[in-house]
Records
---
Amino acid sequence: MNLFRLLGDLSHLASIFILIHKIQTTRSCRGISFQTQALYVTVFVARYIDLFFRWISLYNFFMKIFFIASSVYILYLMKYRYRPTHDPSIDTFKVEYLVGPAVVLSLIFNYKFEFTEILWTFSIYLEAVAILPQLFMLQRTGEAETITTHYLAALGAYRALYIPNWIYRYFTEDVVDPIAIVAGLVQTGLYLDFFYVYFTKVLQGQKFELPA
Amino acid sequence: YGSANGHDEL
């Protein structure tokens, strides 16, 4: 564990709290992609299946439980509690285009051809692109509530912080995980456009609006 | 190299 990794994980936690806070205070899941949230549940369940056979640490254990539980809770909020506030007509990204390639890639590029290992790899590839339905929705509507942009910024920061974490681990522990790194770089790259608008508009006190 | 880190990241 190093500082980058810890800050990354805390940023990830923060993003989830921000999202739940947004849904509960506005009593609405407007602007949030159900598809992206459903993909995150898939990612966490596929990756953290190792809860049953691999012990890493208490920290690791509780974080995994939290990510699975909170992501399922968010789906519940969107699907049942605040269902009328979700507009499926603007959340139309075809998730098959993400899940399909993630399955195929994980079958080809993995460390070991074993069921749980392939699930782990699949979860890494899927997480890399899971934000796309959300970004697509943002692009379509061209604007976002400020709180939603804070959620995305925290989520993007989590991914960005994992990069110095890998560099640090390379030098201190001699650990290199090419699958996680390549997928992580792709994932972080997807946030660049968003970050540009976030820093130049939202943090200057303006509303998040994309040029028409 | 590879999964040497034992997938200890979240």
---
Amino acid sequence: GKKNKKKDEL
Amino acid sequence: MNVFRLTGDMTHLASILVLLLKIYATKSCSGISLKTQELYALVFLARYLNLFTDFISVYNTVMKLVFIGSSLAIVWCMRMHKMVKRSYDQELDTFRHYFLIAGCFLLALLVNEKFMFPEVLWAFSIYLEAVSTIPQLVLLQRSGNVDNLTGQYVFLLGAYRALYILNWIYRYFTEPHFSRWIACVAGLVQTALYADFFYYYFLSWKNNAKLQLPS
């Protein structure tokens, strides 16, 4: 699956 | 979002509120390192560039604005507010933090998830945050006695990243393809820097004594 590239952390 | 990260963010927010309370209530910033505040403002500005491009959640956007706004307000206050800046320990807050900025930027150029501008800046902000508390810890050791609010501020600031480490462990085991090794290694270094402060903070709490750091 696609690595979760989003920087969802502060 | 998991309980470790949420309590981590709330602990971080609490540290900022305690600092704002200290400055506002006592109109003094004695014991606070302006250099650490400047480094934190730089950390947030470098890390939250995607504030307007990537919308994650209302929570994420609001917290980013609060962190950027409060860190800039504190730096402004310590530099400009006539009463506050008089209490600034300028002769004690002498750590050359520009070396920290240069070193972290170089490291970010070498070690990053992808050699792209946003990724290099993100890695820079992660490395810089890991070392940004050094001027503050040096100042505390030099200034000897630490007032309660300053001690609580530094304790909360150190504790939030320890909670983030639990968050990374949790996400590693619950999310496939989760990897934040740069943030995790830097977070471990950041938390380790507080080790001796945590020890003396715990002693002062156990013996109900004033927080004293050996100079």
---
Amino acid sequence: KATSEDREVSIVYLGSLPHEVYSPLSHHHSILQRVIQGSSLESLLVRSYKRSFNGFAAKLTDQEREKLANMKEVVSVFPSRTYQLQ
Amino acid sequence: TTRSWDFMGFHEKINQTATVESDVVVGVIDSGIWPESESFKDEGFGPPPKRWKGACKGGNNFTCNNKLIGARYYVAESARDGTGHGSHTASTAAGNAVKDVSFYGLAQGTARGGVPSARISAYKVCAPMCMAHNILAAFDDAIADGVDIITISIGFGFIQDLDRDAISIGAFHAMEKGILTSNSAGNNGPLGATVSSLAPWILTVAASSTDRRIIDKVVLGNGTTLVGSSVNTFILNGTSFPLVHGKDVSRNCTERRAGRCEEGCLDSDLVKGKIVLCDDYDRGNKAAYKAGALGSVLYNFRNTDDFSTIPPFAATTLNEKTYSVVMSYMNSTRDPQGTILKSEAINNPAAPLVALFSSRGPNLILPDIIKPDISAPGVQVLAAFSPDASISTTPGDNRHVQYNIMSGTSMASPHAAGVAAYVKSFHPDWSPAAIKSSIMTTAWPMNDSQSYVPTYEFAYGSGHINPVKAINPGLVYEASKEDYIRLLCMKYDEARVRLLSGDNSTCPIGSDKGSPKDLNYPSMGAKVEPMKPFAVEFHRRVKNVGLANATYTAKIFSESKVEIKVVPEVLSFKSLNEEKTFNMTVAGSGLPYGSQVSAALVWFDGTHNVRSPIVVYTA
């Protein structure tokens, strides 16, 4: 079981929102559910992007990120890096 | 902004119609906003545009008004600006015109945004660090809220692929909805390939100087006066004070460390009432201030006159030449004396020059797309700030101000966003690519004479932004979502592209795939093999947005030995929005490693100069 130290906030980018009737939040839950083991989904999901595009941010381990990156509905998975004011 | 807009010939109320402009909403993704600032008061503003879907969710004690019509925060306790940066950028893009503002008497004038009658919606993602997942959340909301233009003066600093960069992703979906994103190029110049805002759907903005330069002076005991760079608002009470070098006022550090005034090296008893010379630009101020010195003179080894910080006490920075004059004087007398004068604004006839700190191309992700795209004022810009008790202009400085002077590509991006919003107010139906094209093709040509190794277009892009001309470009290089999708097909497989587009887009295969340089971009770039012959073809189409009946002739400006051909050389339009295509070939041979040739294509109809830079370079 991964500890909180093993987890890093990561972005799971799913591209555009589908045009058909779609529930982003339940889709995000279902994707996340497929890769996490033994942790509560609510505590890992940080944010859902569902108004203008599709994706979510969650606290993930390296292994979970790798699994997600191999899913066909995922465009990219990457750690939420720190940007700076310029 | 008390000088930047006027410097560009964009004088107050020039062609601006408040009623149309007030329909434009500028989204500012930054460190929040100071809602009580004069720059964001709503006197004379009616209710938000009917189509506005945003919300004021700024947190406790945060109130929006008819100027600041939206606020959201993703970090900290509220959308209130915790650093001053967000208020600065928001007021530069779309702040009210506020008369008689200054920074302790410096840079006095009317501070204003590019579109003073436009509305602002603030999205706070930095406090002061900015996490990618919050940046994406801000884009998600700003797009859905219905902003027209987004400015984001934030960057990662390193190169990331387009599908792993929060700003690139957010701006792509903004573009889909007709929203242009202006983004700072970064402050990692003048080294090459440091620009990190690389997506072609973003307007990437470099920083340049205006004709107002703020300087200060060091007067030595022998009467010599030297010009330094800092924004020093402190007046020393007296005419002359002892000058000491860091290495002579330390008891516990090596000579080198003490000379650089490293923290803990300066002896408080030995620096009190004296001006300390430090061989280090970064550390000197802080240490000398903490040790209780009266002032400091720092050696700026970068020799950058265009970047100046605001010291917490009387201090200035000197370049190599002037610092050595002080050192020689110190060594020539037993009792060296001097003083530092309060800063003053002088005329800078060399402007606009691209700032040395501004990040440079080429583009490491898409080498044939020239980045940055444009230059805009980003040096010593006075704009709104946060007068919060917990915020100061500089660490150690306990003064608090409503308006502050800042430098960076952060200051350039909102200038470009202000111009984009201005263009949008005249042409509400123009696509993000058309607005971007109008800004790029009407830019003033620039030079890069300040750099030791000039990088020309990779420093300033298409040139200096020209708001007055940008509303009437004559022709635009249009690009739709499908054009960008076609480009993405060159990088990603069809399944991934379909996820990105949200539709059943198909990717061309084989030779139909094309090349990134075929994107209908308003500048033309190509990376070629060193020391080999080359013949690069560019395919472009232009849309007539000037006069219905117009004939444009191609003019090539080139001092290099490359051969450039445009076919056809004349484009005749019979109606507005008519599109014509042309091909351009650039041929040559034997470009050495690390070299670059620059030229320009100008379509001219007797009124409009539609200028595109051409850059061919080697690795």
---
Amino acid sequence: SWRLPEPEPVMHGAVQSPNYPQPYSPNLQEQWDLSVPEGYQIRLTFTHLDIEASAGCYYDSLTVLYDAKILGKFCGHENSADGHHPGTQPILSPGNTLTLIFQSDDSNPERHQNVGFSAQYQAIDRDECSEPEPDDGSGPLCSQICLNTLGSYVCSCHHGYELRPDQRSCMSSCGGGIFDEPEGYLFSPGYPNPPPHAVSCQYIISVEAGFTVSLNFTDNFHIESVDTEQGPNCIHHWLEVTIPEREPIKLCGGKSPGLIATNSNTVTLDYHTDDEGQSRGWSLDYSTNRVKCPIPGDVAMGRVTPILTEYFYRDYIFVRCDQGYKLMMDGEEITSFSTMCQNNGQWHLPLPECHIIDCGEPEPLLNGRWVFLSGFDNQYLSVVQYHCNEPFYTLLGGINVMFTCEADRKWRSNNDIVINPICIPVCGQPTKLLTGYQR
Amino acid sequence: IIGGSEAPENTIPWQVMLSVDGGRGGGMVIADRWIMTAAHNLVHDGNPASKDTVRIYMGLTDVKSLLGSPVYAASIHIHPEYNNPNLLDYNNDIALIKLQDQITFNSSIMPICLPAEGATYVTGEMGLVSGFGITETNNRRILTNKLKYVQVPVVEQAICSNSVALLKRNRDNVPDLTNNMFCAGVPEGKKDSCQGDSGGPYALRHDGQFWAAGIVSWGVDCGKQGTYGVYTRVANYVGWINTTMQEN
């Protein structure tokens, strides 16, 4: 068994009686089911109608129906005295379907041959928005604003309201959601006017880690409270402020909480009212501040830069050692040091230390030696003096050759030379002379 | 050394004793890798001695003690113009020995200074000649094992030349005196260098420094009246010495 496909809806078309424009045959029973897309009506316009006229179109007729309801039963012709001719006015179907039934009896008058009818139909957009409210008690199509569209309609809401999931009714807008900008403005629905009853709104302020949120409530604060001996009690209406890892705070009453520094990058605000009472609501400005890191402290024989009164997330500090000192961390020398204030309020590296540099052992001197004149351990600014093994050697080019351990870790003489001295032999000067007193 | 004395230790620290194929000679330390001596110590029968046959001793005054610690030659550099096949021409009698190892100087080993180029030799100026060569005791000539020295003056070149000329009349095969030589000694004899001292130092002293004025080279007899010791005039070779040391 083959399933025939549904006929494709069309936007316009034509319908004619059999044999039109030739006279139609007797004993006809023909039906046309017209349809256009959902959301459209069918406008049927007769270009010609010439059907045997009879009272009540008893013998031959064209019946137009919508959903089994007869919209018209036509016969005759334009100038006939009897019958029921549609004239030039089109017929509009209430929906997107229309049924035409043409029928003729078994005799036709001999002196006049009727040709039947010819009609055009087209899809006409329905203006659902202007249609009367359905009788089923479901209310208007849209609770606030209805916008007609081709073949359909959409509902919309006034400012301060939002469309419910049913896509037809509106509810008061919370303006809630997630706020991730570094600063912003929040307010209860309808603020500063009282919101509708039974509000349940959630506002989440969530900014980048490393920032803390501060709430600054405006003075115009009113959330209905119940006065008890212990003070106002937020039983029916409240604004609950939830900060991670802390007890939630319920706010109500007529006094603004003012500034609340949350010390957290995430805050959740839940505003609740029940079906009774009246709260005018609240509004707040929120701002963010960078997390603060501890003052880094001092480094002996070094400098921490920049020097600030406070250090915040993403601030960098650098450490440089004084001349003659080197940066050391975990027992290793490092060429440079910087550390950043992290989003947890801690420096990502501890401060290094500055250790005095050393130039290493001075170069040995063949046939000579060096001695410290000042300093020790070959440290920065230590001074050594070279001597040759006298009296057999003497320094080439100088008597006192002193080298200082400089900041570049090289031993340098006063003349800024790095090369080592040379001991040259002393010649012709024996330690013991041939002597005699005999003459 | 004729008519001299034993040198106390450390008084002539540049003194070197050479042993070349068993023959004894002298030399002097002039740098921490260089010994200066007479060329004829290192040339036998016209052939340069192999460096392996050369033993060098220094630092002590007793040969017996010296022998325990020879120093070895790395190379031998004979003056290129020394040519003495018949032992009649001692012109340019100078040579250098480069040592294998560097010497560290102390009170017993010290270099003697080289003369300034063209340094003057003042007649009559007393010089110190030393060596382990033949000495004379009780009119007997013996080879000493103790370093000896004697002080003899520089002899005027003309007197020396006359002396040599006179000897040539009476003897055969007396070498010629050249301007690269000078004489030192006394006319009455009895103070002189002798065989075994050749190559050793004749030192003059200026401003408290001894400098190598001469190298013991040759002479007719030793300490004989009217004869003088003939020495290589080192001042004439300063250029060659420096060049040789720098190039090697």
